[in-house]
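Help wanted!
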Amino acid sequence: MKKGLAWKSIGFALLCLFAMNKTVHAEPYLAVQKGLKCSTCHMAASGGGQRTPYGSAFAQTELPARTLDMGKLWTGEIGRYFAVGGNIRGGWNRLDVPGRSSISDTELEEFLAYIEIKPFPKYLTLYVDAKLRPDDPEIREQYARLTLPKGRWSIQAGEFFLPYGLRIQDDEAFIRQVSGINFNAPDTGWQVGFEEGAWSGQLAVTRGTAGGPEVDSGKQYSLRVSHVTPKWRGGGSFNFNDASVGDRQMQNVFGGVRTGPIAWLAEIDCIIDDGTPTGKRRSWASLIEANYGYRKGHNLRASFEWFDPDDDVPDDEQNRFSVIWEYSPIQFLQTRIGYRDYNGIPQNPGQNREQLFAELHVFF
Amino acid sequence: MRLLIIILLGFALGGCSAGSGKGLDVSGRPLSEGGDLPLAATLASIQANVFNPSCIVCHSGASAPLGLRLDAASSYTALVGVSSSQNGSFKLVAPANPDASYLIKKLEGTAAEGEQMPLGGPPVPQATIDFVRQWITDGAAPDSGGPASQPPVVVSLTPVPASASTDFPSQIAAGFDQDVDASTINDLTFTLHRSGGDAQFDNGNDVVITPAAVALSPMNARLAVMDLTGVAAVEDRYRITLSGAGTNVILSVSGLTLDGEFAGSFPSGDGTQGGDFVAEFDVQGLQASLDSIQANVFTPTCAFSGCHSGPAGPNLPAGMDLSSADASFASLVDVASIQVPVTMRVATGIADDSYLIRKLEGTAAAGSRMPLGGPFLDQVTIDVIRAWIDSGAAR
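Answered by r_m:
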């Protein structure tokens, strides 16, 4: 047997093995395409961060157009008690704002490192997600997770991203930006997780300061429940932040379905803020996204988002169209080229910008 | 199923167009709530033109990132004088000091931590940020919300009172907490003297400085500016007086007299109308004292964020904290170098044996010459630091 074929077989076997163990997760559209739960490919039950061995194997065998023969499959695991991973993103970005000169820049956007220490494998995990910079690393997540026997229940304590809706990578999507629950806003507290068959649930109680210090006795309560089948998934989230400056209540429904080569994602959020200068304010944010995996290693994404900042105020809505081509030529590497068109009220040029971008993503 | 999705998508796209903006201000709020304001160096204008349209979509409500709320009811108390939670060595807004204000660093994209703000959005134009800078330079005053019933007070001054600098200022700017009557800002109510070389005033040899102009800023009715263009730069002690007593006094637009008494911290005043505001500053060459070296070398050259900015500790470079004279003294004098532990950073009385001097002159056995990447200090400046060390490196 040729060496390349041998390691591909090992990779496929690993995929099957981990899939049978039902311990996976990935970028949402990939999870929809494959009918997998988020926790199949990522350590976090709602996605993102360190990849599981299955996630690593998937990224090397299923995601790229071509897999280079590198001898053996990288699983992220270094021995039984230690695992690492990382994401490096950089690229070029151009913004066109009406009435202003175009802005373009090239930069290293982020270098994320994930470290997982497992003193008691399968039961106790210590996890750190750090953004590395030359002079000032930033810890994004740091928590300890205890998983009970049979893997059904888990409890974690520390600083982590909150469970709420679809955890897509784009933090600037309205559903991520407006809800304030994204990769820029970890919170500190504890979380109980439940994984059983097609069901997945998380309940978190945290400070409610989006990464800031504790300022009052009120807490933030986040609940996310989802049901995943091979063809479709659906779920809902509820979040209540009890704050002295005025409470915030958020709720959403989200889902995904696969129709042939297209994976669809959708979410709609309703956000109610107390304590605004005009009293209670209700806003809406939504996303619908189609991902067309027309060939192995390629994904063509089109999305439409809509945002109503205050449903008592007419004519203030915003929307955003995106078209993105993602290409993973080989394992550990992904390129992304995209265009976004923002539309909002004409008197605010920033709400009517256009964006072109190209991104190189290296991950392991 | 596919047909159903396409139909739903069609409805979504067709029914979710962007708003026309009719009857709304630039922030998308009804004009009846206040409407647009012209750009000016006031909090109300910055709120209307920067925070509302660009920031509060995230920075509002109970879940504002880092707990930082920038809605109109919260922005002043959340920003002014409040330490950054990303970098505690900076205030979000440090009154009178925009370069040390984290808000400016985040808007201009020069902060070491996190992304440039607004996140993912177009950056705020520099011309707009300059108004934010000016508001901070003016003292970052809150908005009065109408004619004031209290007498005006001074909330900021540039140069900073009791400061020492090697550079003669090109202008003096005094900020007030409320709009003042432009006709009362002139060379009789806003004056500058120098001591005549003896650092003493009112002893017969004071020199009156004649400025190029004295006026209220045309952009900001709370900022009085003395233009010193063409004034000879003389090393001396200077005294600034804003008149709140006598015949010629500074008045607010509501006719109240300046409450000027100043005891070293802002705002001025004793709660009643009247009283001159008096503050002094020095223009002097670099002195062989830690305060002078701090002001002229360490603070502007070494104590940047991410460099020797503290907090003190074992990790270089921040751990060698040069952010204040006290911190520098604690970090340097008779403290062993981490790079070469047998050498004191400052060996009291012996400049040649001091690691600080070796690093500044580029003769250290380890690491790079400081300031890292240059430009390096000229030898005249280093010689003053040598003199301070040789004379005992006193605090």
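OP: Thanks! One thing I noticed: Chain A touches chain B through 69 residues (CB under 8 Å).
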